[in-house]
Structure formats: structure tokens, C-alpha cells
Amino acid sequence: MAGVAANRQIDHIDTPAGGSLDRGTIVLPVTIRTASADDLPRLEWFGLHTPHRGIIAHAYGMQQSGAGAMLVAEVSGFPAGQVCVDFARKRHQGRATLWALRVFEPFRGQGLGARLVTAAERVAVARGFRHTELGVDRDNGRVLPFYERLGYEACGTESGQYSYRTPDGVLVRVPIDQWLLHKMLGTAPSRLAAE
Ligand SMILES: CC(C)(COP(=O)(O)OP(=O)(O)OC[C@H]1O[C@@H](n2cnc3c(N)ncnc32)[C@H](O)[C@@H]1OP(=O)(O)O)[C@@H](O)C(=O)NCCC(=O)NCCS
Questions:
Q1: 106/93 Cα distance (integer angstroms)
Q2: If the chain, 195 residues long, is cut into consecutive pieces of 10 residues, what is the mean pLDDT of each piece?
Q3: Which end of the chain is more exposed for a tag (fewer CB within 10 A), N or C?
Q4: How many angstroms separate the alpha carbon of residue 145 from the centre of ligand 1?
């Protein structure tokens, strides 16, 4: 009955489809923190990244084993962004690798991506790294100014392939064709050297 009443009310509002009925600005709390097991299903973002469930689990496993970190940007309780750090892959070059940076589309352009990168760099410094490195797909060149503003510079290219299995068991092979960017971080403590 309430629904019928509400419909009747809307019938009387002469607003074209998509027309505004209210406008305003809301301010939401943001926390950048390490991921917890509870985040993993929610980081699939309502199905968008469900095919990547295995990759998300792998990133979390790296954090649990100490080989990496998985950071989330929690906005009002929702994990609206993430970035992963791999301490192992280029340790021999003294570099921490940032990967899988992404922000859920409705939350983009609010500074979350920059905050995530900065937090990942702080994690890398705390682990004794003096450099971070990341790859940008050659078909994602529009993101380059974002990283340049954060102090990243081109340092080469990388190509190859990686694969993952979807929850349905399908093996997906993905070609890698990337620019490599790096950044020298502030003075780092000596933990890396000690390990
Ligand atoms: C890249 C990404 C994480 C940035 O997140 P964000 O929260 O929007 O970042 P910020 O708000 O800190 O910065 C946004 C700035 O980067 C620019 N930017 C980032 N990615 C861009 C893209 N693909 N195309 C155009 N501009 C882009 C925005 O235009 C914006 O610039 P402005 O401040 O001058 O308006 C987000 O766009 C994203 O998730 N993209 C899809 C996944 C991806 O490409 N990840 C990077 C893999 S290397």
C-alpha cells in the first residue's frame, strides 16, 4: 500500500527521466589499512572482479606470509580501493613492486588512488626498500600523468604473460605489455639489508 501511495506521489512530480529531485554534497570517512579476510569477497565489487577471486586470494596470501602487503581504502565501511605490494619479486634489485591499484569507479577522482600509492610507498619504506616500481599496460597510457604527478619516471618496459583461474575453473592467459615506472623513496631503514 505504501508503494502505491509513493507511486501516486511520483506521478504528480513533473520531472523528466534523470531530472534531479535533490542535490547536495556528502563527506565520507576514509581509512587506508591493510586488508582483512572479511574484505576479500567485498573486493570483488559486486561481481566486477569475481573472475579475479584467485588473484585477490593470492595477494592476501602474500600479505599473510610476509611476502607482500594488500592495502584497502575503506570508505564508509566499504573497501572502495586497493593496491598490492610485492616485496619478493624484485627484492634482488632493492625494489618493491606495486600492483593491482584500482578504485571502484564511483569513488574515482577523489584522491583515493593517490592516497593508496602513498600508503604503499610508506609500507615499502618501512620494509627497508628505497625504490618502488610498477607496470602500466600500454593500452592504459591515460593513467601515466597520474603516476608522473606522484613522482614516477619511466625506467623500461616489460612483456610476457600471466594466467589465472576463474572460480568456474576457466584458465585465462593474459599477455603483459607494459611500461615500467619507478620512484626513489625517502631514506629507508636498514631492515632489507638485514634480511
Ligand atoms: C588509476 C586509478 C586507481 C586512480 O584512482 P583515483 O582515486 O581516481 O585517483 P586520484 O583521485 O588520486 O587521481 C585521479 C587523477 O588521475 C587521473 N587518471 C587516473 N587514471 C586515469 C585514466 N585512466 N584516464 C584519465 N585520467 C586518469 C584522473 O583524471 C585524475 O586527474 P585530475 O586529478 O587531474 O582530475 C583509477 O582511475 C582506477 O582504478 N583505474 C582503473 C584501474 C587502473 O587503471 N589502475 C592502474 C593500473 S597501472
A1: 37
A2: 47 78 96 98 98 98 98 97 98 97 98 98 97 98 98 98 98 98 76 45
A3: N
A4: 9
* Class of residue 11 by CB neighbours under 10 A (exposed 0-12, middle 13-18, buried 19+): exposed
Tell me what pLDDT residue 15 has.
77
C-alpha cell at 172: 585465462
The best mutation among 43, 55, 108, 140 to test binding of ligand 1, ranked by most ligand atoms within 8 Å of the C-beta, falls on 108
pLDDT of residue 12: 63
Atom of ligand 1 nearest to the CA of 146: 16
Atom of ligand 1 nearest to the CA of 102: 39
Sheet with 68-75, edge to edge strand ranges? 30-34, 68-75, 78-86, 95-103, 131-137, 171-184, 153-165
CB 81 within 8 A of CB 98: no
The reported pTM is 0.90
Sorted by where each starts, the structural domains of the chain and their CATH numbers stand as 27-194 (3.40.630.30)
